[in-house]
Design brief:
heterotrimer, B: Rossmann fold, 4-stranded antiparallel sheet, globular, C: 291 residues, two-stranded antiparallel sheet, 2 strands
């Protein structure tokens, strides 16, 4: 090798292997500004009024940012596609809902615990499901959703197929969405932060090794089973929390709202579309998908074709755009700094 | 009379690199060729390129004057070139007879297929005994017999064998080589890839040494057998030489 | 005791139908190593065809198999050409294809929902609500006819695979794809044909489904989960295993339905799936490398 080649390789090595991700000042400023905007956004209600639709859209996006970022931990980092996350969503929702209806506990208090319950469930289920790989794992997660669906449908205490309604939050109409907005924002920030920290940790590195070649990772000494199960559990945490809040927001808990495979499909789609395995990907994907979906719904109405379109989009993204937005931009070297958090 | 001419072919798997890098070989009818060389030299790749499992990226493969480089495997099989892969490639849950029937898959005439199956079963009495057993219950040597028998159903002109003695005990391997002798005597053209180079060369007319994707040198089998360079590099000499000395 | 036997009869008569449903799925997996999540929604598509043939033209749902089988065979070929030719052979074995069949399932579900709505449907030819009395046991006619036809079709499938030239080629591809290539089988073409046959079997299953169950587009998730548990139990890729698994679990779920509660019976399949995955991921008859 010529001297130039050797030096270039050395420099490459220096820039590529950065154990600590140094956040530039520009990016930090960007985050602060973004946070300020998001925090003050609802205040427009007092200025302009009629913001409830936008508050709804925003908190809906925050929720899916949290869920997609969480899903990404098992689906993106570890490479195990789970279609079972609606279970975490449901467990979270019903947990806070039941505590509210029967014991008068505010979901704002119980949501984090709902998250922990979901996480515990994830760890338990993971012990069984993660003994399989690839297609078999995906199948086991579908079976999980169906299993939980039947249990909930038959459980009279939580309302069975009819579900239970939860009381409305006692706030005037203009303020009603505020607590949900801020709480979801908080959950989203927490989920993204956890995703970011995992990405830059030894744990995350291990997960990514598992997604590349699990056998080699095992041979290299990575505790693959433990890592996978932990990842699955963590991925359930914020989904459970979000679910805990969502049930309260909807004022209604029903199995066929929460335990829908289409929710799982949306999580896959958002994450892959944005960029599987990246930090910013799920955020971009969630926001983009919900906004585009909303555009179509408001112009063409909700029909079942919406479902078909989601499926079609998923297929197209999987075949033609598997690296997603962030992934493709990164590959071409055109990723803007504000999206580069990996 | 060259029945098969491989001219300067390059070939590889999928979108991977070239394994064969300009390999040329001429095969005369009725002769037995032993192809030897280190692992990765391209021996199996060469056979696959001839029978259509791979298509040469460059160069040509000509059989009886016809360019077969782009043809499908079933077309090449029907023209008279058969191939026994390294792992024997049997159908484990099919019986011996069904495996033979699969060998004749490209045959249109069912009657003739049944005749040929019976002929092969006669040729290999052991297979005849086990004709209704599923092939996974056969011993290693019997499986190799079946693999060879399967190619014979088509009555090929050229038969290509990829490491037929692999994994077989010496006595069983000897039986295989005796079978190859039988085929030789019947006038068949044989391409034999063998890791057991000594045994392979001993039952062949001509030897080719492949290395790094080209035909490094060739010659009459017994000459190759005696050549000291070959002896050391590929056959293993009597004295153990250190790597540096060989290099 | 008599109740138990009655319930077992009930389950066994459904077993044949489940076996038919599972056979198509198993065939496709055996040949192409693809788990076709869309299998159940395609069954429902066929069920709609049978349903409307009955409603509009009074065509007996059982006879509708003469329509659904060829129609769904063509549908299968079209899907194969559209979807699977786009993926290279290496990607095929991984989870990409599962996700693609998953998206396909969603697409078809959406289209069916848009076209037919979410109303629960069920064809009701006379025999669907009649029964035969054997001793003191009741055998529902609809289920009996369906199971007989299913077993017949599975038998035909078996004969086809065992004795026809294409059947040989398909079995060869299932057992050792590279060996099949070596003897001149056009593996691509066989995969396509096998897929078509698999979907054709879904078509026949759909005809049965139209009068045996109430169906609507969203119901396919329940069915695909059931079918997947059947073939995982029987060993993925093993036709015999799928049939055995189908009868076993059908009887078991009938017992659960009878003794615990009718709405609980599907849980048998899902629990079975989890338990098998826990102890023997390759099922009862499958091989370790299938999972």
């Amino acid at each position: 090798m010529s001297e130039i080649a050797v030096t270039t390789k050395k420099n490459q090595a220096k820039t590529e292997y950065k154990p600590e991700h140094s956040t530039s000042r520009g990016k930090k400023i960007f985050l602060v500004i973004l946070l300020l905007i998001l925090l003050s956004f609802p205040l427009m209600q007092f200025v302009a009024g009629g913001m409830n639709y936008w508050l709804h859209m925003a908190l809906f996006i925050f929720m899916y940012i949290a869920m997609a970022s969480s899903w990404n931990i098992i689906g993106g980092y570890a490479g195990y596609t789970s279609l079972g996350h609606p279970v975490f969503f449901a467990v979270g929702g019903y947990f806070t809902g039941t505590l509210l209806v029967y014991f008068d506990v505010s979901p704002f208090l119980s949501a984090p615990i709902a998250g922990l319950v979901s996480m515990a469930l994830g760890l338990l289920v993971g012990l069984i499901s993660l003994r399989t790989r690839g297609p078999a794992f995906i199948i086991s997660t579908i079976a999980l959703v169906m299993l939980v669906r039947i249990i909930f449908d038959n459980w009279d205490y939580i309302g069975g197929t009819n579900g239970i309604s939860t009381p409305l939050i006692e706030l005037p109409l203009e303020l009603a969405k505020f607590p949900f907005y801020y709480y979801m924002l908080l959950i989203a920030i927490a989920a993204v932060y956890v995703s970011y920290r995992i990405r830059h940790s030894k744990f995350g590195l291990g997960l990514r090794a598992i997604s590349q070649d699990e056998t080699k990772a095992e041979v290299a000494g990575i505790p693959t089973s433990q890592y996978k199960i932990l990842a699955f559990g963590i991925s359930g945490l914020f989904v459970g929390m979000a679910g805990g809040l969502w049930g309260y927001y909807l004022t209604y808990l029903k199995p066929d709202i929460f335990l829908l495979i289409i929710i799982a499909a949306k999580l896959v789609l958002m994450t892959v579309l944005g960029g599987k395995g990246t930090v910013a990907g799920p955020i971009v994907g969630a926001a983009l998908f919900i906004l585009v979906n909303e555009f179509f719904v408001s112009n063409f109405g909700t029909t079942e074709l919406n479902i078909a379109a989601t499926g079609l989009l998923l297929a197209l993204v999987l075949i033609f755009f598997p690296k997603g937005i962030v992934g493709t931009l990164k590959e071409k070297g055109k990723l803007p700094a504000i999206l580069d958090w990996d | 009379m060259s029945i098969l001419v491989v001219d300067d072919i390059s070939a590889g798997y999928g979108s991977g690199p070239d394994i064969l890098k300009g390999l040329s070989l001429e095969v005369e009818e009725g002769k037995t060729y032993c192809i030897i060389g280190p692992n990765g030299a391209g021996k199996s790749t060469l056979l696959k390129a001839i029978c259509g499992l791979l298509h040469p990226r460059q160069g040509s493969v000509t059989y009886k004057g016809e360019d077969i480089g782009k043809k499908r495997t079933d077309e090449i099989l029907m023209k008279g070139i058969s191939y026994v892969p390294q792992d024997r490639s049997l159908f484990p849950d099919m019986t011996v007879k069904e495996n033979l029937r699969m060998g004749g898959y490209t045959m249109r005439d069912r009657k003739e297929l049944e005749n040929r199956i019976d002929e092969v079963l006669e040729m290999f009495p052991i297979l005849g005994e086990r004709s209704s057993q599923s092939s996974k219950t056969l011993s290693g040597g019997e499986q190799q017999m079946l693999a060879i028998g399967r190619t014979l159903v088509l009555n090929p002109t050229i038969i290509m064998l990829d490491e037929p003695s692999l994994g077989l005990a010496p006595k069983v391997a000897q039986y295989i080589f005796d079978t190859i002798d039988q085929l030789k005597d019947s006038g068949m053209t044989i391409l034999l890839v063998e890791q057991n180079a000594r045994k392979g060369l001993e039952c062949s007319d001509w030897g080719c040494v492949l290395d790094l994707g080209i035909n490094r040198f060739e010659g009459p089998a017994d000459t190759i057998l005696q050549d000291p360079r070959i002896q050391e590099l590929y056959l293993g000499s009597q004295k153990r030489k250190s790597v540096e000395e060989v290099e | 005791m008599t109740q138990a036997i009655q319930v077992i009869i009930f389950g066994a008569t459904l077993g044949g139908v489940y076996a038919l449903m599972a056979s198509g799925l198993t065939l496709v997996f055996g040949v192409m190593r693809i788990v076709n999540i869309a299998h159940a929604i395609l069954m429902i598509l066929a069920a709609y065809i049978a349903f409307y043939a009955f409603q509009l033209y009074n065509l007996d749902p059982i006879l509708s198999v003469f329509i659904t089988i060829p129609v769904m065979f063509l549908v299968g070929i079209i899907i194969y050409k559209l979807f699977f030719s786009l993926i290279s052979a290496e990607d095929r074995k991984g989870e990409l294809t599962v996700l693609l069949t998953f998206s396909l399932a969603i697409i078809v579900e959406g289209v069916l929902g848009a076209q037919f709505g979410n109303t629960y449907r069920s064809a009701n030819p006379g025999y669907a609500s009649e029964a035969i009395l054997v001793g003191s046991f009741i055998i529902p006619k609809g289920q009996l006819y369906a199971t007989i036809l299913s077993v017949l079709l599975i038998g035909l499938l078996w004969l086809f695979l065992k004795y026809s030239r294409i059947g040989y080629a398909i079995r060869a591809t299932m057992q050792n794809q590279s060996a099949a290539q070596v003897v001149g089988v056009n593996v691509e073409r066989m995969s396509m044909i096998a897929f078509g046959i698999g979907i054709a079997l879904a078509g026949a299953s759909g005809s049965m489904m139209s009068f045996l169950f109430t169906f609507y587009p969203g119901k396919h998730w329940e069915f695909i989960a059931i079918l997947l548990s059947l073939i995982v139990l029987g060993g993925m890729g093993s036709l015999g295993g799928a049939v055995i698994g189908a009868f076993l679990l059908a009887i078991l779920s009938a017992l659960v339905g009878s003794y615990i509660g009718f709405t609980w019976s599907p849980i048998t399949f899902f629990l079975a799936l989890f338990i098998i995955l826990l102890f023997r991921p390759q099922g009862l008859l499958g091989k370790k490398e299938d999972i």
